[in-house]
Design brief:
Blueprint (H helix, E strand, L loop, with lengths): L4 E6 L5 H12 L2 E3 L1 H10 L4 H14 L4 H4 L19 H17 L2 E4 L3 H4 L6 E7 L2 H12 L3 H22 L13 E4 H4 L1 H14 L5
Parallel strand pairs: 1-3, 1-4, 2-3, 4-5
Helix pairs in contact: 1-10, 2-5, 7-8
Length: about 210
């Protein structure tokens, strides 16, 4: 099996995170999401000179930021209903460096964080977008969060709006659901969670990234 990175973008409630986690488990690699944000938040508190010193030491040792993320707590699991997107260029700078380092040093799965945009043009990257009809996403959100239909619908709307604004800002105007951004766009309701994993693995075999 060669070196590869699979990036995931997903509509809230579509099962994209579950698909990403199952794919990573099947391939025997790490799945990175919220710990990237946790580490980036910690690094953003450093003076820029100190960060570059840390980055240089890691590069010289041939190590990855993955080691620094071990044991870190996850960031919030869900975006609050009333949270608005507020840009933080410094935080995104650190996230970008972490994602590039991970892609350079290990095979892995990365969820969100504009990873498809950050790693665009690399032959060893497969970018996937997972979406599903709203009623399917609402049902899944109600089941996983234990909330009412009203709260589930509001959470999906707010979170997807946040993700769209986040993506547009950091990709300089591109839009999050643009199919051209991705190798594959899958409807998780029609295809099925397990079948999405199988399809992605089949595509990776076609690209020669796995056997």
């Amino acid at each position: 099996m060669g070196h590869f990175v699979v990036t995931f973008a997903r509509g809230f409630g579509s099962g994209g995170k579950e698909i990403a986690s199952k794919l990573a488990a099947d391939l025997g690699v790490h799945c990175y999401e919220n710990r990237i944000l946790t580490l980036a938040s910690q690094l953003s508190g450093l003076d820029e000179i100190l960060f570059h010193e840390v980055n240089e030491k890691i590069s010289k040792k041939g190590a990855s930021y993955a080691g620094l993320m071990k044991g870190l707590p996850r960031a919030r699991k869900y975006i609050a209903r009333n949270e608005k997107f507020v840009s933080d260029d410094t935080l995104f700078f650190y996230q970008k460096q972490i994602i590039k380092n991970l892609a350079d040093t290990e095979s892995c799965v990365i969820v969100g964080k504009c990873a498809d945009y950050i790693l665009a043009g690399r032959h060893d990257v497969v970018s996937v977008y997972i979406e599903a009809p709203r009623d399917f996403c609402i049902r899944r959100t109600m089941e996983h969060m234990g909330v009412t239909e009203e709260v589930a619908a509001a959470t999906i709307k707010q979170t997807d709006t946040y993700r769209a604004e986040y993506y547009a800002y950091y990709t300089h105007g591109n839009y999050w659901t643009n199919p051209i951004n991705y190798d594959m766009t899958l409807n998780s309701e029609r295809v099925g969670i397990e079948e999405c994993v199988a399809l992605i693995k089949s595509y990776m075999k076609i690209k020669g990234l796995i056997e």
